[in-house]
């Protein structure tokens, strides 16, 4: 009777969807006031030749009293607007706009990108690392921007935040095109050697998400294989359970994480829903990048002490060898 399905479908209560990956009670325990956090959304309206820009920061007085969708969630809102403008493209500078919205954050950072195309948004997250803790300090959503413009946005954020732990990118589909442009670079800047493209449906050796130790299949004595997406999900689950991650009270985070679901496929592995998960995927690749730096080939020291150079995209079967 306590199951999400019974609560929602039988009793009609708000709550976790059936087969949620990140249950609300666990997730919300890691939502924290992150004073540096700024979120911006840029939408390119080609027919009108305008760019809609909205930006917000967290309300430091906001207290989470209910999950998104509950009636009790009405009232004070978690975000305070700092910009809401529609700008003619003739007067719009992507670099100038992003520089005016985002401010550098001190410390060591890692970034994650989930690339979209057309109406499918691109999500870029910046995470500050404090020892074993990762906390999201900035988010940029781009909609209907072409790949060269997305590269420009990444270049600007890279120069603003200087993420010493580099960039992770979902290169499963359209992200491969953006990865190519990021390695190619522009204006003397490149992410080559500082970005790792992850193919989520690739099979990789299973590893303990906390220690990096390879997990053997008892039937074969060989390393058990999982998808890169499964491994990334375990990294997020471990961080939530070990209190090693902090999420902002951004309504998009509050909606996407608890509503992200998975089913058990015919092989016995989880099959994740691929809708409304862009922030989740951007978080996945950022955590994979940190894990790869510490436990992947070429890692020579814990990530919180040293960042090995030259880690880039590798063949799927060698990604975590």
Structure description:
- By secondary structure, the chain is α/β, with parallel strands linked by helices.
- It has one domain (about 30-320): Nucleotidyltransferase, domain 5.
- It is built from eight helices and 13 strands.
- The strands form three sheets. Strands 1, 2, 3, 4, 5, 6, 7, 8 and 11 form a nine-stranded mixed β-sheet that branches. Strands 9-10 form a two-stranded antiparallel sheet.
- Helix 3 runs parallel beside helix 4 (about 145-160).
- The protein starts with a helix and ends in a 26-residue tail after the last helix.
Quick structural overview:
The protein contains eight helices and 13 strands.
How many helices in DSSP terms?
A: 8
Give the radius of gyration.
20 Å
Shape: globular
Q: pLDDT under 50 segments (min length 5)?
A: 1-14, 298-321
Keywords:
single chain, 321 residues, alpha/beta, Nucleotidyltransferase, domain 5, nine-stranded mixed β-sheet, 13 strands, 26% helix, 24% strand, globular, disordered N terminus
Give the arrangement of secondary structure elements.
Layout: H1 4-10, H2 24-28, E1 38-45, E2 50-58, E3 79-88, H3 94-101, E4 108-114, E5 122-130, E6 133-143, H4 147-161, E7 167-170, H5 175-184, E8 195-198, E9 203-205, E10 225-227, H6 228-241, E11 245-246, H7 251-256, E12 262-264, E13 270-272, H8 278-295
Parallel strand pairs: 1-6, 4-7, 6-11, 7-8
Antiparallel strand pairs: 1-2, 2-3, 4-5, 5-6, 9-10, 12-13
Helix pairs in contact: 3-4, 4-5, 6-8
